[in-house]
């Protein structure tokens, strides 16, 4: 990748992260977990743009398919995209930022490790650049970031209990840490599969990028593909483990 392209990608990626995190946490009340209006505005707009992008791609690429086939693509794909953005708006805003960070760092870890030492192709037909070494790196990054979040923010719920109850509460602290390891694992796996699903979709309709709204990164579907599966998986994990309670 040329230096100018890398610079554009880095700058637009930085702006995107700052915008998403800033609007997600603006006017957030940690005491009640109630997000501000910008949270709902942001994720409604992102969801609608992603749905629009998906519909535009189908309209341009599936003209030769039957009406029933086109309807199935619209309904199934639209439901897959919509469910993630609906569930996001039912989550604690800080948890959404935590989830996004784990997803983003999983992708970063996979890229860094895969581009450095990657040798064994993971899914050569669907995504030729993905390697098993990169996958392992992504999982390590996902688990590491989850534990950092637990240490800096989510683990605070145990501090007072440890001071009061001692060793018994410390055991709960350890269980909490292990739950966050599990969070990193399931989110990292879901993010990888979500990325592969979108890669398969783009190969099926023969496009490189889903759009060009984000310079150097492609479209909304390109940037939020991993989140589409990570959100419902994280939601299910939260229900099973009571992770943040």
Give me a quick take on this structure.
GO terms for molecular function: phosphatidate cytidylyltransferase activity. The protein is mainly alpha-helical and 245 residues long. It is 75% helix and 3% strand.
- Helix-and-strand structural type: mainly alpha
Integer count of domains: 1
Strand fraction equals under 5%
Cα-based radius of gyration, to the nearest Å? 19 Å
Question: What is the straight-line distance between the termini?
Answer: 45 Å
Strand order in the sheet with the most strands: 1-2
Count of β-strands: 2
Written as H for each helix and E for each strand, in order along the chain, the element string is HHHHEEHHHH
Taking pLDDT < 50 over at least 5 consecutive residues as the criterion, the unreliable ranges are 159-170
Range of helix content:
over 70%
Global geometry: globular
Note the main sheet: 2 strands, antiparallel
Number of helices: 8
Residue-averaged pLDDT, rounded? 86
């Amino acid at each position: 990748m040329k230096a100018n392209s890398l610079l554009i990608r880095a700058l637009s990626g930085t702006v995107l992260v700052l915008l998403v995190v800033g609007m997600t946490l603006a006017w957030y009340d940690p005491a009640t977990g109630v997000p501000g209006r910008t949270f709902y505005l942001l994720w409604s707009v992102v969801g609608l743009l992603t749905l629009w992008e998906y519909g535009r791609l189908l309209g341009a690429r599936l003209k030769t398919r039957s009406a029933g086939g086109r309807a199935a693509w619209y309904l199934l794909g639209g439901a897959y995209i919509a469910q993630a953005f609906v569930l996001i708006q039912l989550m604690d805003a800080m948890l959404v930022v935590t989830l996004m960070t784990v997803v983003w760092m999983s992708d970063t870890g996979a890229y860094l490790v895969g581009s450095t030492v990657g040798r064994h192709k993971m899914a050569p037909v669907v995504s030729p650049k993905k390697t098993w070494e990169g996958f392992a790196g992504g999982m390590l990054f996902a688990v590491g970031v989850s534990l950092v979040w637990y240490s800096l923010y989510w683990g605070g719920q145990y501090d007072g209990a440890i001071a009061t109850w001692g060793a018994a509460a410390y055991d709960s602290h350890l269980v909490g840490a292990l739950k966050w390891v599990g969070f990193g694992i399931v989110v990292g796996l879901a993010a990888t599969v979500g990325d592969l699903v979108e890669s398969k979709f783009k190969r099926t309709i023969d496009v490189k990028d889903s759009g060009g709204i984000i310079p150097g990164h492609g479209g909304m579907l390109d940037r939020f593909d991993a989140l589409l599966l990570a959100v419902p998986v994280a939601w299910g994990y939260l229900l099973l483990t009571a992770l943040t309670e």
